[in-house]
Protein 1
Amino acid sequence: NAGVMQNPRHLVRRRGQEARLRCSPMKGHSHVYWYRQLPEEGLKFMVYLQKENIIDESGMPKERFSAEFPKEGPSILRIQQVVRGDSAAYFCASSMGENTEAFFGQGTRLTVV
Amino acid sequence: DQQVKQNSPSLSVQERRISILNCDYTNSMFDYFLWYKKYPAEGPTFLISISSIKDKNEDGRFTVFLNKSAKHLSLHIVPSQPGDSAVYFCAAASRGNAGNMLTFGGGTRLMVKP
């Protein structure tokens, strides 16, 4: 039973480019969460999605960031026109239900140059 | 406004001794608490959790204590092993509001010396 899969593991983008981060939840999990970890800080909640629905996006920056979890395929976190401050580790977690344990992927390390 | 705080950025412990990691929170709506362990370049791994209706939960070498009146929880690892060296994150959730959105502390780096 594969765990939460995130790709790519490392992503380098120039300022102004777009970054697309993918997350495939564990089998049977329909709840996906995205977190961001800035250097030397804890993880910060960004967005909570269920299939085809955004449930809570209170942690998402208002501009340039968007997330989706389509009926088929992985969840995507999209960052448009990246800036240096977007450089961070982005972690995805999935769970079977609202109040069941969430399991994390290995993260995508985004570097904006 | 940090709702979950881990005031010790690092902790060094001798092998076989007890490691005690502390965490404080401010939001009284939190009713579920978790500890995660994280190695470099990997995602957080769930260790142990506790509901606010309990004050202690034990799993092998790991025990979590919750003091609701003080809004404080701690993770005890005994005996500590070199393989326990990692960053430990405390996290909290308000499950009464549904969802698994976690608020994390800043982490404590534990170093267990042989």
Protein 2
Amino acid sequence: DAKTTQPTSMDCAEGRAANLPCNHSTISGNEYVYWYRQIHSQGPQYIIHGLKNNETNEMASLIITEDRKSSTLILPHATLRDTAVYYCIVRVASGSARQLTFGSGTQLTVLP
Amino acid sequence: DSGVTQTPKHLITATGQRVTLRCSPRSGDLSVYWYQQSLDQGLQFLIQYYNGEERAKGNILERFSAQQFPDLHSELNLSSLELGDSALYFCASSTGGAGSPLHFGNGTRLTVT
């Protein structure tokens, strides 16, 4: 699975959009991009994933560049409850879903 | 709520003992994954089962074992416990289909004294 690079930490003002970048320059054509978050000591929470196209759900939007070498997770209106560690993970799509490998992630702090 | 249920939520035991952690996957999910998260480390993948069969192994110690039963629930057995085994243990499940995301439970916090 391709390696990802994320900033160690970011701050965002409450009510503003939080844009979390992720670099995955070695991604291959059959690898998905997944985003998870972990609020202190809770289980990682699935947010969104995508292969090539931009994706949106009730939680967030995922913007993947045309060359697929980077992506951005967008939380449109950040709240204090969005403070968490956010993980960007790349994984091969296979017939038998494989495990996710978590890195260090980005600590997002939403400020009042 | 992810739909993945883990029991117990907390477990305190002594060194040398054996414990069993239980996981019920989301309805319809065939794959179960176990992860360990220690205080000073990230999430470490331990093992994966798919429809009752072991599918992948990660950094799982020989003192640890797991299985997935016909009803698809899974158990992680930890034996000869050491202080360093104190950690959060998470279970996740997925449908097993290509690209399917994992959904995590809220974990079992194990404290070895």
